[in-house]
Design goal:
This protein is about 30% helix and about 30% strand. By secondary structure, the protein is α+β, with helices and mostly antiparallel strands. It has a single domain, classed as Nucleoside Triphosphate Pyrophosphohydrolase (Alpha-Beta Complex), CATH 3.90.79.
């Protein structure tokens, strides 16, 4: 998985830190991924990388969210990295397809659009926290999501009317991803 570790380092190093909080998050990720042998697999311990996709419609007015069964909240599609993943973008797109059936039309992986190190409840088993690397993608106009075995529900949400059941700081994170995407 050293190629994935190198890709994580590349994305974290290029992360456009816009605030003191962003710089602190980037420093946290840098400490975990100081070399290519960072924790990219769930087998690397209770704190490890995951990949997710912030999926917007072409008008950038809606976002695709899945209802996460273990977390009991709406969140962007994503999950653990797997040995066959060649990059964080590949992992995020695989998770997106598995969880929603949606394929993007435009992807941009020059940097991570979101870095989020979050603690997990006991419902997540041996995982204590995830170091999530979020990418941003645009879906096709008529992308019709499908509910998979991994999600209880999948739905497009207007950015100005996100659901109440989201992780802490989710609204801020979505706004920052959108801001980075529009640059």
């Amino acid at each position: 998985m050293s190629a994935l570790g190198a890709d994580v380092r590349r994305l974290v190093d290029a992360f456009p830190a816009m605030t003191d909080r962003d710089r602190a998050v980037r420093a946290d990720f840098t400490a975990f991924f100081a070399d290519d042998d960072g924790p990219v697999s769930r087998d690397d311990g209770p704190r490890h990388a995951t990949a997710s996709a912030f999926v917007f419609d072409p008008t950038l007015t809606r976002i695709l969210l899945v209802f996460h069964g273990k977390g009991r909240f709406w969140v962007q599609p994503g999950g653990h990295l797997e040995p066959g993943d060649e990059s964080i973008m590949a992992a995020a797109l695989r998770e997106l397809a598995e969880e929603t059936g949606v394929s993007p039309t435009a992807v941009e992986d020059r940097y991570a659009y979101d870095l989020d190190h979050h603690a997990l409840s006991s419902a997540f088993g041996r995982c204590a926290s995830h170091l999530d690397i979020g990418v941003a993608v645009i879906a096709v106009d008529d992308a019709a999501p499908v509910v998979s075995e991994e999600s209880e529900d999948v739905r497009w949400w207007p950015l100005d009317a996100l659901p109440a059941e989201v992780p802490p700081q989710f609204h801020r994170r979505v706004a920052q991803v959108l801001q980075r995407l529009q640059r």
